[in-house]
Design brief:
eight-stranded parallel β-sheet, binds zinc ion, 10 helices, globular
């Protein structure tokens, strides 16, 4: 049966989920969902491989070095990719995070070097990417121009309407998460997003406030996000799911 929904960005390898993993996998199966499980570093990339070997029906593994882990060895990552290229569905979570390094210029330079290296892997392998761009969206958009990439997702999109237009004109996807349920600003951004470029995510185990009561986000949060999306775009729920699945399949090049 075709999946009903894709969580386009979640950290299933996060420590916080380790005791819940069985339940999360059951949840994904019973909701007929798939999840892009992103990595942060070498340890979570390896963990992701193990996860996929047991749960390949629901887990889609992305491997990458996150800007918060920019100190990781690029040689180790390169070896890992060479040995497992057939099992890697995409490159992520990668990107830049100006806020994480504040005014440490060397730290930001290292993030850029790592990000460029990750994009080269994605280009070489012809794989989609999942990109973090906190406080760095203009730099990220500029960097992406130098690569010939298929399936770029600017996850947790938090840019301006101008940046949104730049991104979607370039053919990049943007994803919205649980904040869509309570944030008027997010819904306004969504209204301006061309429908072919919208995806949804939980970014679990991130915690969301308001109606989500600061609990770690689970895949079961996703239907509420889709409901908020459907209302904003004046679609019925099933049509919103079909639209999202078509976008997800194009983004991933599979499902
Ligand atoms: Zn994330």
């Amino acid at each position: 049966m075709l999946a009903k929904l894709l969580d386009a960005h979640v950290h299933l390898t996060d420590e916080e989920f380790s005791s819940l993993l069985g339940q999360i996998i059951d949840m994904l199966r019973s909701l007929n969902m798939r999840a892009v499980s992103v990595s942060m570093d070498m340890a979570t990339a390896r963990k992701n491989l193990t996860l996929t070997s047991s749960y390949s029906d629901v887990v889609i593994p992305f491997m990458g070095i996150h800007p918060w882990s920019a100190g990781e060895s690029l040689d180790d990552f390169s070896d890992f990719v060479a040995n497992n290229s057939g099992k890697i569905a995409g490159i992520g979570e990668i990107g830049l995070d100006r806020k994480y390094v504040a005014d440490n210029e060397d730290g930001y330079k290292r993030q850029k070097l790592v990000f460029e290296s990750m994009l080269s892997f994605a280009e070489k392998l012809g794989k989609p990417t999942s990109i973090h761009s906190r406080g760095s969206l203009d730099d990220v958009l500029h960097t992406l121009q130098s690569y010939n990439l298929r399936g770029v997702l600017l996850h947790w999109f938090a840019g301006s309407k101008k940046q949104l237009k730049q991104a979607t004109d370039a053919g990049y996807y943007v994803s919205y998460g649980p904040a869509l349920v309570y944030s008027e600003d997010k819904r306004s951004l969504l209204s301006d997003t061309p429908r072919d470029f919208v995806l949804v995510e939980t970014d679990g185990p991130v915690r969301y406030s308001r109606c989500f009561e600061s609990k770690a986000a689970l895949p079961s949060f996703l239907p509420s996000v889709v409901f908020a999306l459907a209302r904003t775009l004046r679609l019925n729920y099933d049509d919103a799911c079909s639209m999202l699945m078509q976008n997800s399949a194009k983004y991933l090049g599979r499902l």
